[in-house]
Design a protein that fits this description.
mainly beta, 5 strands, 104 residues, 12% helix, 5-stranded antiparallel sheet, SH3 type barrels, 30% strand
């Protein structure tokens, strides 16, 4: 069965229309997204986090990590696909921090 194409909000377009009040990740951060990172997207007016399974070109596949409360054709832990342009925020996992103190 062919997966139905879902319509997510284009975060990059909204940023271009109002860059002073609507921030989005830079292109450099978007292309650095990898497996197990979490990204925020919006569908039907509700934002939620998605854990990335894979990134292919400018398409992302991941699992819904929030219980969504509005109507969506998916639910918690379902796999969905969307574009890099739909990403509002990124939570990078296992990111080494250069300012961490060593030792105790």
């Amino acid at each position: 069965m062919k997966e139905k194409k879902l319509s997510f909000v284009d975060a990059q377009k909204i940023h271009r229309e109002d860059p002073m009040t609507f921030a989005v990740p830079s292109n450099e951060k978007l292309i650095a997204i990898k497996k197990d990172d979490c990204v925020k997207v919006v569908h039907n007016g509700e934002s939620f986090w998605v854990k990335v399974i894979k990134v292919r070109d400018d398409e992302v596949e991941g699992t819904v990590e929030n219980v969504v409360t509005l109507y969506h054709p998916f639910k918690y832990k379902d796999t969905i696909t969307f574009g890099l342009q739909n990403i509002y925020d990124i939570l990078v996992v296992n990111q080494k921090r250069s300012n961490q103190k060593k030792g105790g």
